[in-house]
Design a protein that fits this description.
The complex is a heterodimer of chains A (296) and B (337). Chain A is mainly alpha-helical. Chain A contains twelve helices and two strands, in the order ααααβαβααααααα. Chain A has a domain of 183 residues. Helices cover 70% and strands 1% of the residues of chain A. The N and C termini of chain A lie far apart (44 Å). Chain B has a single domain, classed as ABC transporter involved in vitamin B12 uptake, BtuC (Orthogonal Bundle). Classes of the chains: A mainly alpha (296), B mainly alpha (337).
């Protein structure tokens, strides 16, 4: 749940300011890649997470430049950067470890461990479920709440939402539209990179080509479902990961009559189904995905 | 010029990996555009071309069909299944049926996102993307279980009977009928987009969907139609790949590092949704894909390179759109003073 939650909340912030950032998928992937590489070569998980955040940030820096400064089409640029990232990460991975990866792929020994909160995690059932997670999960929950508060209870949040509805008027009112969008995008890149790092150094211990498997896009779908509200996103992300965990369980049970491919399909079908039911005619921030050229 | 920058950056990345860019690009060019390699480039370009043409139709109406990859897989799978079912029919009868089924399969796969977008305004980028994954898993299941070739250890269907293989057009090469069909669609789609009312309506829808409604354009129906056409062509691409190159359905029919469905998006955009430019671009990118495989074999460059170069090309061409404009403006301003 955590990667999708982190990316989702960050995307809510960015989309509230009017930018549709598809390259979170790429940011996650490059985060997963950098985290793994750094963890493999230095053994430090903390450094790995930092590297992941920075690489995601750099990727979104590229995106911001293309989309804010050059005002290129946001969807296309995002997709292009994602394609670039898949090629780049696969290429660099092979450049490092050899063109033909041996039967046992390189993996890291120590994976990010869950952090038990002292007393609370000893509670009978609730303890293990709620309080025995990788530290980033707690951070993600806090981040969601923080963003909700920021967006709806502060002046900055008001500015962000204003930009999302009508950037031109916001500009006339003295709000620096481009700067705020730029900063939000950088933040999102950093967060998405860290979210991606969870894949390669927490949930698994290796890097695989295109290992994000569309999770960034699912996060974007969840943003729509959550009506651009970080708290609703929390619920959405939870439900999504419920399905995800369910399909893993189904595979683990070894229900041979039920082919594993159908289990793997479930998260994606679920996303479509939920969108079909709850995502109808949802109106987002009015200026979403429209390029903004400052009129001086 | 912008393509040049993309290649320069690619060269830099190659150097980063400790390899010689000159030899790398030599092999890429040799594997792509040398006379001996041209037929293979055209073969590689054919499914790409069909996919891109289909995408151009949808993109004209600003309908972002990102599901071409899934539609292609479904089309290919159906082509193989139909081929195996119809194996006793003579080729001139069976083949058109197979192509039709492949196309219809792709169209059917595009229908759900089309409907959701038309009726409920649900973002088609996400729905089509999700269905990609579903399609690939579905095909994987089908290839591993019901339709698996009992004689093979790989997930693939039985090889189609030889009379159902797409006939070779130029002896000595693998250039097959499918390639011809793909290029046939270039004038067809051109006509559709530029000379019919349907094409005009698509453009109106793409320009301003609200105005389209006031102008009486039935946008819901149009959205579905555009997506169906797009899906049909993608499915057909899968079909020609199965009949013409693979002669069976397997999981890897789309180049792993630059899948037809996604590369097609690039080609459609680089061709500015113009079928003629798209034809040129798909041949070019087909060459890049093949060239990068040659580069991989002969110079040891990992196959990710094609993906990188492609993406760089897209980004730079998009960016150049802006830069040239403002350079021109700057020059004009300077001139006026």
């Amino acid at each position: 749940m955590t990667p999708v939650l982190l990316v989702g909340v960050a995307e809510v912030m960015v989309e509230r300011s009017g930018v549709l950032n598809l390259c979170v998928e790429g940011a996650m992937l490059i985060g997963a890649f950098s985290a793994f590489m750094v963890a493999y070569f230095t053994g430090s998980l903390g450094l790995a997470i930092l590297a992941a955040g920075l690489s995601g940030l750099l990727l979104c820096l590229l995106f911001s430049f293309l989309v804010i400064v050059l005002a290129l089409d946001q969807m296309v640029t995002g997709l292009a950067i994602n394609l670039l990232t898949v090629g780049l990460t696969s290429y660099l991975y092979r450049a490092c470890f050899g063109w033909y990866v041996s039967p046992v792929p390189p993996h890291i020994e120590n994976v990010l461990q869950p952090l038990k909160i002292p007393i609370l995690s000893d509670l009978p059932i609730v303890g293990d479920v709620l309080f025995n997670h990788v530290p980033l999960t707690y951070f993600a929950l806090l981040f969601a709440i923080l963003c909700w508060w920021l967006l709806f209870k502060t002046k900055l949040g008001l500015k962000i939402r204003a930009i999302g509805e009508d950037p031109q008027i916001a500009e006339y009112l003295g709000i620096n539209v481009n700067l705020i969008r730029f900063l939000l995008l950088l933040l999102e890149g950093f967060i998405a990179g860290i979210a991606g790092s969870l894949l390669s150094i927490a949930f698994y211990n290796m890097f695989l080509d295109n290992m994000t498997q569309g999770r960034g896009y699912i996060a974007i779908a969840l943003v729509i479902l959550a009506r651009w509200n970080p708290l609703l996103l929390l619920g959405g992300a939870f439900f999504f990961s419920f399905i995800d965990a369910l399909q893993l369980r189904i595979q683990a049970i070894g229900f041979t009559a039920f082919p594993y491919q159908f289990a793997l399909m479930m998260p994606y079908l679920f996303t479509i189904a939920v969108l079909a039911i709850a995502g109808r005619r949802v109106k987002g921030p009015a200026s979403l995905a429209k390029p903004f050229k400052r009129v001086r | 010029m912008t393509i040049g920058i993309a290649f320069l950056l690619g060269a830099a990345i190659i150097v980063l990996a400790g390899r010689n860019p000159a030899t790398a690009y030599y092999w890429m060019f040799r594997g792509a555009f040398f006379p001996s390699a041209l037929p293979e480039t055209l073969i590689r370009a054919a499914p790409l071309l069909l996919v891109s043409l289909g995408l151009a139709v949808a993109f004209t109406a600003k309908i972002w069909n990102i599901g071409a990859e899934g539609q292609l897989y479904i089309g290919g799978m159906l082509a193989a299944i139909t081929g195996l079912m119809l194996k006793d029919l003579p080729a001139p009868l069976a083949m058109p049926i197979i192509f039709l089924v492949a196309g219809l399969g792709g169209a059917a796969w595009a229908f759900l996102p089309a409907f959701l977008r038309a009726k409920y305004e649900i973002n088609e980028i996400i729905t089509t993307l999700m269905l990609n994954y579903v399609a690939i898993y579905l095909v994987s299941y089908l290839l591993n279980n019901p339709f698996k070739d009992p004689l093979s250890q790989f997930p693939e269907t039985q090889t189609l009977p030889e009379h159902l293989w797409a006939p070779i057009l130029v002896p000595g090469t693998r250039l097959h009928l499918g390639v011809f069909i793909a290029f046939l669609f270039v004038p067809l789609v051109f006509f559709l987009l530029r000379r019919t009312g349907f094409g005009l309506k698509l453009e109106v829808l793409g320009a301003n969907s609200k105005a389209a409604k006031y102008a009486g354009v039935p946008s819901a129906l149009l959205i579905v139609q555009a997506m169906l056409v797009s899906g049909f062509l993608a499915g057909l691409a899968g079909g020609i790949e199965v009949l013409g190159v693979q002669h069976k359905m397997r999981l890897g029919i789309s180049p792993p590092m630059s899948p037809y469905g996604f590369t097609g998006i690039a080609v459609a955009l680089l061709g500015f949704l113009n079928p003629l430019l798209i034809a040129l671009t798909s041949v070019f990118l087909g060459g890049v894909i093949n060239g990068s495989m040659t580069m991989h074999r002969m110079a040891g460059i990992p196959v990710g390179m094609a993906g990188i170069i492609q993406a760089l090309i897209i980004i730079f061409i998009l960016a150049s759109y802006f830069v040239e404009e403002s350079l021109l403006q700057r020059v004009l301003r300077g001139w006026k003073r």
